[in-house]
Design a protein that fits this description.
With 334 residues, this protein is of the alpha/beta class. The protein is built from 13 helices and 9 strands. Helix 7 links the parallel strand 5 and strand 6.
Amino acid sequence: MRLLRSYLGRHPVWCTWQVTYRCNFRCRFCGYWHDEMGKLPEQTVEQFAEGSAKLARWGSLLISLAGGEPLLRRDIVEVVRAVGRWHFPFVTTNGYLATKDLARELFAAGLWGVSVSIDYADAERHDEARGREGAYERAVKALEMFSAARQYDWQRVNLMGVLLDDNLDEVEKLIKLAAEHDAYFMIQPYSELKTGEMKYRPRGDGKIGEYLVGLRKKHANFLSNPSFLARYDEALNGGVRDCAAGKAFFNIDSTGDIAICVEERARPIANLYEHGPAEIAKRLKQGAKANKCYKCWYNCRGEVESLYNWRGLVKSLPTWLFDTGRPRVNKECG
């Protein structure tokens, strides 16, 4: 009901909260690991508790605790507990530092879900792209550990694949890999906003969206909203206009600075600890009105924007509000 309160109150429902910019990987398609913000002091657990309570004045949010690599923080369990008192915390990780004990502690602390990043079903290709030997093996093991550690049916485990220039043919293999570990699959398209490089952009014949929607119909554990998937080719050929950054979602940096999205972090519009909820909401709305960007189609954008049209909302509600965190896998297809 608190999440519904945010939605009906025209407040954002999704927040990406960067808990650190430090990273133990050297991914070729991401520059966060050498971002200068990784050298700055990070928020304390007490600040996460303070900030979470402040944001709860709007209602509850779906909060993606991201980075960098969140599991580099030794206090990540306490961070999840602080955020989970008011909101729905979700951790996105490369899985390398996951352990059985950590997985259990995170879910016990109130973790709503976790996404483990795997981009290729081939270990060598994944390790090369992620710049770390053993990345694939550790990620698959993390899927296994997180799936086994869930304490409640509503807790989710996802395999998250970044769609690049050379891995469209890997998607169905990754969906099946997720199913083997009782997990959902979600997809995230690369954007040149990450590195400034165009060479990693997904390539297709104008039918990527059609292909992905077809896979979603075939595989019950493919979680991504079909309204989001259907617009992939539009996003790759000119971009999707009318971005809802600041209106439907926003970003908090590891220092507490707030921007309408993560790619606008160099241009913050407020600070979580210096401004009150009403002022933050006001500045987000102003930022949303001034936003003319159409360069990405990240799922933190496309999935949330799907909730703001009736077709996308109808397709999302059964999954987000009523389904359990364990996918009903079609054994014949998966």
